[in-house]
């Protein structure tokens, strides 16, 4: 019985080792379980800064132009609502006033934002733990916003003054603003712009990225274009509602011109509340939420489609057969 017992024990030991090997292999093959804040498997690919930069510029510029063109009339109405003092009437003519000049700024601004956001995000995702991916998205959004602000602010100043009927064309607007207010006139309300756009960019992109991660983990697959669009709409609408008071302040400071009825951000808030009441800080919230919600849907839908197109176009040559044999 002794040899038989040894044989059985040896067999059991061999089986246990085999089971352990199988379990180890299965564990390696199984996808790692991740928390809601984990990142996608794309981060495991080698980091190509130049390619990420170019993809961000192309996809960002494309998405920015498409969404701005589609929703410019809603943005014009929102601006006129916020600019109206007291019970002023809103003019519904010329809703595309200033679009051409605005696109000349939106294209490079959107390209600059995504061109900075994407590499910054990818780099931070590799440096930070998986459960801090939200920090990477927030930080990348803020950094991208700062980079784009040098183009966005002059574009916004010219656009909003044309929307409120102060100028007939973008070249005239730039020339007269510089003549009357100096070059700094093109950066009127810069601090209030950053006060609005840095939180907006950081929150919107963080919400969008985190919702995509959570959805992908739940669905266990890549998202399609309609799903990206819905997530983008939700992230945009929520962020737009939260930042409406900041947008009102920014609009008032940008369109005041040389009159300077507001002496800064704090004075602007106090004056609006004193003369028009606290609800005035929420002026235009309806069009703003509608505009940014729909805009988020279009922007992120076009963004992801363009990024996928660029990725697939690079893969096509590698799949084409070099030699065909009969």
Properties at a glance:
disordered N terminus, 10 helices, single chain, about 325 residues, mainly alpha, about 0% strand
Q: State the shape.
A: globular
Q: Which structural class do the helices and strands define?
A: mainly alpha
**What is the percent of helical residues?**
over 70%
For the report, how would you describe the main beta sheet?
none
Number of E-state strands: 0
Note the total helix count. Answer: 10
Low-pLDDT ranges: 1-43
How confident overall, as mean pLDDT?
81
Q: How far is it from the N-terminal to the C-terminal residue, by CA? A: 67 Å
Compute the gyration radius: what is it?
26 Å
Content of β-strand? under 5%
Query: What order do the helices and strands follow?
Result: HHHHHHHHHH
Write the layout of secondary structure elements.
Blueprint: H1 2-29, H2 49-83, H3 99-127, H4 133-163, H5 170-181, H6 190-219, H7 225-242, H8 244-255, H9 265-276, H10 285-319
Tell me about this structure.
The chain has helices at 2-29, 49-83, 99-127, 133-163, 170-181, 190-219, 225-242, 244-255, 265-276, 285-319. The protein has 326 residues and is mainly alpha-helical. The longest helix has 35 residues, at 49-83.
Quick rundown:
This protein is mostly helical and 326 residues long.
């Amino acid at each position: 019985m002794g040899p038989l017992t040894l044989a059985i024990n040896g067999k059991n030991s061999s089986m246990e080792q085999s089971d352990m090997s199988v379990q180890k292999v299965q564990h390696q093959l199984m996808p790692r379980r991740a928390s809601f804040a984990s990142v996608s498997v794309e981060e495991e690919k080698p980091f190509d800064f130049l390619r990420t930069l170019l993809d961000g510029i192309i996809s960002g510029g494309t998405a920015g132009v498409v969404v701005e063109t589609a929703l410019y009339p809603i943005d014009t109405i929102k601006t006129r609502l916020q600019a109206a003092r007291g019970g002023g009437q809103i003019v519904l003519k010329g809703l595309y006033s200033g679009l051409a000049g605005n696109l000349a700024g939106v294209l490079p601004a959107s390209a600059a934002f995504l061109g900075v956001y994407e590499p910054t995000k990818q780099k931070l995702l590799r440096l930070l733990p998986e459960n801090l991916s939200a920090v990477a998205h927030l930080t990348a959004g803020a950094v991208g916003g700062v980079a784009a602000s040098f183009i966005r602010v002059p574009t916004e100043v010219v656009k909003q003054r044309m929307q409120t009927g102060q100028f007939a064309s973008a070249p005239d607007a730039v020339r007269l603003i510089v003549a009357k207010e100096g070059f700094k006139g093109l950066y009127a309300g810069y601090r209030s712009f950053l006060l609005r756009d840095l939180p907006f960019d950081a929150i919107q992109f963080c919400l969008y990225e985190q919702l995509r991660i959570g959805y992908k983990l739940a669905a266990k697959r890549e998202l399609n274009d309609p799903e990206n669009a819905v997530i983008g709409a939700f992230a945009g609408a929520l962020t737009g509602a939260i930042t409406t008071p900041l947008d009102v302040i920014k609009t008032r400071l940008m369109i005041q011109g040389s009159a300077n009825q507001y002496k800064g951000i704090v004075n602007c808030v106090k004056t609006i509340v004193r003369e028009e009441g606290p609800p005035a800080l929420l002026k235009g919230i309806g069009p703003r939420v509608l505009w940014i919600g729909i805009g988020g849907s279009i922007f992120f839908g076009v963004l992801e489609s363009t990024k996928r197109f660029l990725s697939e176009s690079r893969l096509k040559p590698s799949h084409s057969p070099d030699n065909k044999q009969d």
